[in-house]
Design a protein that fits this description.
Strand content: under 5%
Shape: globular
Family: Belongs to the glycosyl hydrolase 15 family.
Strand order of the largest sheet: 1-2
InterPro entries: 6-hairpin_glycosidase_sf (IPR008928), 6hp_glycosidase-like_sf (IPR012341), GH15-like (IPR011613), Glucoamylase (IPR000165)
Low-confidence stretches: none
Structural class: mainly alpha
Organism: Rhodovulum visakhapatnamense
Distance between the termini: 14 Å
Number of strands: 6
GO molecular function: glucan 1,4-alpha-glucosidase activity
Catalytic activity: Hydrolysis of terminal (1->4)-linked alpha-D-glucose residues successively from non-reducing ends of the chains with release of beta-D-glucose
């Protein structure tokens, strides 16, 4: 049996993660002034910051934006945040209602982007190359808003150059709201139904098309992460709404995913365009978000487990900090160079969640032990305080890149909940 995390640490960190998540949601008391752009942003109610930290790529990245993908992942963790912090239940109920209104506003098809970037006159010379082109902003209307990976935290359009289009966010948001509706009335009703329908119709229109994946790296391709997110939303929507068009599209996307079967590892390749053996941890994170218990995309499915095993073997040998560990800190993919190419807390926690859920479903002691060992890695690398970073340095394990990532907080809450499930099953 592998040594697991200290139970007291898990309990304390669970509360810390709930507080960290709450600070990023409807953070109307914060203000972000980007001096180089002459741009001040105050988050709107319902927005969810990818990070509440104020940074300017110096070297910590500036994540003070609302990413649709990250926000959907945070939404999925809200029941666990409420369980960890019962006194904040009222906050979360209001936050979900506000988030639905905010999301409807930023995706309003009748809205039009500005004809000229409003920061043109205020940006300094060093920052002008990072301004989003006028033509891109002027073209924003109709469904184009749903292909935006992020917006300003006040609900305005993203005024900086960034990787576009991205199609995973609306699918993840629709799936999160459909699941959340079972537990929270604020995720049901006319407004929520309208948002879900808008997200599903957009997903239906772009399903299977190339776009930038969750790591926002060129070139556009049909990534496993995006395809799985689209399949999950379409299949859930078909069941909820009884729409044959959604059911047919879900089957078509499932057939596309099947083309990513990897002959080298027996798992799933990063994308349909990836070469044999080309894996990415994002594929596993998408399967964890979908959380299916049967079928080819279940967590217990042979290709899911083969993908996990191959990636864990890869990262065990790739990062110096993994020497001598019972389980490795996990990164995104073998050739990752962002901020030095390091282990990511959301990835390591996502794999821990997957192993816990497999253990709960199968009763396999080895799966539980593996999950415990991964959580022990997080315990070892996590800094003091409420915030969990994005990454840990591949050699020293020191926190690096964003030092307080909302996705990391959500991932911890989900992994801790999966641990509870696995312990109960034992």
């Amino acid at each position: 049996m592998s040594a697991g995390p200290d139970p007291g640490w898990v309990a304390a960190r669970r509360g810390a993660a709930a507080r960290a998540l709450r600070r990023a949601v409807s953070a109307t008391g914060l203000s972000r002034h980007r001096a180089g752009f002459g741009w001040t942003v105050v988050p709107a109610p319902g927005s969810i910051l990818a990070s509440a930290r104020v940074a300017s790529w110096d070297p910590e990245p500036d994540y003070f934006h609302h990413w649709t993908r990250d926000a959907a992942i945070a939404l999925a963790a809200i029941p666990e945040a409420m369980a960890a912090e019962p006194g904040a239940a009222g906050f979360w109920r209001q936050a979900v209602a506000d988030h639905v209104r905010f999301s409807l506003a930023i995706s309003d098809p009748d809205r039009r982007g500005p004809p000229v970037n409003p920061l043109k006159d205020s940006a300094t010379g060093a920052f002008r190359p990072y301004l989003r082109p006028d033509a891109e902003l002027a073209a924003l209307t109709g469904p184009a808003w749903l292909a935006e990976p992020r917006c300003a935290a006040d609900g305005g359009p993203d005024l900086e150059r960034w990787g576009r289009p991205q199609y995973d966010g609306p699918a993840l948001r629709a799936a999160a709201l459909m699941r959340l509706g079972a537990a929270m009335p604020e995720a049901r009703g006319e407004k929520a139904d309208r948002l879900i329908a808008r997200d599903l119709d957009f997903t239906l229109s772009v399903a299977g098309q190339p776009c930038l994946g969750p790591w926002e790296e060129e070139p556009a391709r049909r990534s496993g992460f995006t395809l799985i997110a689209q399949w999950d939303a379409l299949e859930l929507g078909a069941r909820r709404l009884g729409r044959a068009d959604l059911a047919g599209a879900a089957e078509t996307v499932a057939d596309l995913i099947a083309e990513a079967a990897d002959p080298v590892t027996g798992g799933w390749r990063e994308s349909l365009e990836a070469t044999p053996g080309g894996l990415d941890s994002a594929t596993v994170l998408a399967l964890v978000q979908a959380g299916r218990s049967d079928g080819p995309f279940a967590l217990t499915a042979p290709r899911t487990r083969a993908t996990m095993a191959a990636l864990e073997t890869l990262f065990a040998g790739l990062y110096p900090l993994n020497q001598g560990r019972a389980a490795p800190a996990l990164g995104r993919w073998a050739g990752d160079v962002f901020c030095g190419g390091n282990p990511w807390f959301p990835v390591t926690l996502g794999f821990a969640e997957a192993h816990y859920r497999i253990a709960a479903a199968t009763g396999e002691a080895a799966e539980f032990d593996r999950a415990e060992a991964l959580m022990a890695v997080v315990e070892d690398l996590a800094p003091e305080g409420d915030d969990l970073p994005e990454q840990a340095d591949r050699e020293t394990g020191a926190p690096t890149s964003c030092l307080g990532l909302t996705w990391s907080a959500a991932a911890f809450l989900m992994a801790a909940a999966a641990r509870d499930q696995a312990l109960a099953a034992r």
